[in-house]
Design goal:
Strand order of the largest sheet: 2-1-4-5-6-7-3
Largest sheet: 7 strands, antiparallel
Number of domains: 2
Structural class: alpha+beta
Radius of gyration: 21 Å
Distance between the termini: 62 Å
């Protein structure tokens, strides 16, 4: 009888552990970082001449075409998450295109854990905060102090 009880207890513990792990994985997929599905952020196909970033008191500009392309490529991974949020802004990102037009994006904390919201004023797109900040740092838009 004791052996059957131990096996039954182990089976219950294994089932509970499996449910907890499955819920943890579902939470990570559904509520953290960049959403896995949803419309992606679409940007103009015109060449970006320069990018200005105002980030919590820091204002920097890049104009190297490879650096601008790197930021654009990273931003295009963001997926639609919400209507425009009401959270305080971390900063703004302004694209200056070769045809003379500009496009401004608002950067704020997303409703998703460890995600940044990029808003075009109409909708909010979420992307992993770590991935976006790494892209900003790699091209010189943010320094190590940020």
């Amino acid at each position: 009888m004791s052996r059957k009880t131990n096996l039954a207890d182990m089976r219950k513990a294994l089932i509970i552990l499996s449910v907890v792990v499955a819920l943890g994985i579902a939470w990570i997929v559904l509520f953290t970082g960049t959403p896995l599905w949803g419309p992606k952020l679409k940007l103009q196909q015109t060449d970006v001449k320069s990018i200005d970033l105002w980030w919590v008191g820091t204002n920097r500009t890049i104009s190297d075409s490879n650096q601008c392309a790197s930021v654009v490529e990273t931003m295009q991974k963001a997926a639609r998450y919400s209507q425009v949020g009401a959270t305080p802004l971390f900063g703004t990102l302004t694209f200056h295109y070769a045809d003379g037009t500009t496009n401004q994006f608002f950067l704020a904390q997303s409703g998703r854990f460890s995600a940044l919201e990029i808003s075009d004023g109409k909708a909010g797109y979420a992307i992993s905060m770590d991935e976006m900040l790494r892209a900003f740092k790699s091209v010189g838009l943010l320094g190590n102090e940020n």
